[in-house]
Amino acid sequence: xxKEGKRKAPPVKxxxxxxxxINKRAKAVNAKSLxxxxxxxxxxxxxxxxxxxxxxxxQLRGKFKFKDLKVTNPVAVGDGVFxxxxxxxxxxxxxxxxxxxxxxxxxxxxxKTAHAHLLAANVDQAILVATLTFPRTSLGFIDRFLVVxxxxxxxxxxxxxxxxxxxxxxxxxxxxxxxxxxxxGCQCFTTSSMTGEGLAEFKALLQGKISVxxxxxxxxxxxxxxxxxxxxxxxxxxxxxxxxxxxHTTTFAEMFELAPDTFIIDSPGIxxxxxxxxxxxxxxxxxxxxxxxxxxxxxxxxxHIDEPACAVKAAVEAGEIALSRYESYLSMLGGxxxxx
Length: 340
Hints:
single chain; alpha/beta; CATH 2.40.50.140; Ribonucleotide Reductase Protein R1, domain 1; 6-stranded mixed β-sheet; about 25% strand; globular
């Protein structure tokens, strides 16, 4: 009897290695360096929070070696760093090294083929804010988010926002989705910054954790955060009624402190949430319902497309695996775009 499919190990390609690999002088330099936390990335400059909570503008030391990592941003928001003061009056510094990451989450680079863009590092959970209207978040996009989070071993949460816009029919459909994703081990919440629905639960979800907050522009991420932490006063914008799409308000990834030991990382609206460094035989491992049946297909290398005696296809036909999830799997397998 075949065994159930196993979870694959998370990718390590973009993980920081020992100090000596990245910076030959790292050990000596780090001994004299300050510790800090990257709270904002704007390309070549990074806002680093020192151990007293004060911000400094920092750049990378020129001797960093990242040629083999194939990332567009070697330092991510959430990274711990070793740094030194360059100009105390101007409050600028130099980053000497990166503290080894416990995890990270990345997407495909928009501008460089075969490169990845690090969204955040050292996070406790990844939260997707989705809407079923104005603008609509597709199930394909939700599934891609969950697959990416699963591949990096980061617990995921889906928040269905803008409840004040829904009629009974949409709410019934939404409950079906909540039940579906909950059955796969994903926490789901419903919220509205207009009526206050779910805000207490949202605040409790964030307490004592570092959370990366993602979602299409216009889904209401900033409004939700402002509702529970008005002192942050995050910039918001309206959804275009012409295109039913959000206007981008977040340009760079940034970390905000909601309360002591409670941080959120607000990432730009994600258009290219791709499956970085994932081959076709890996994708099914990140669908829990597909992974559970992998060992019961006739062929060990079954891709669950048109192979005979495929347990996954049989489960789809029997209604045991949601058709929408299977379609998302096929789309990812074929490199299609079902994210809109």
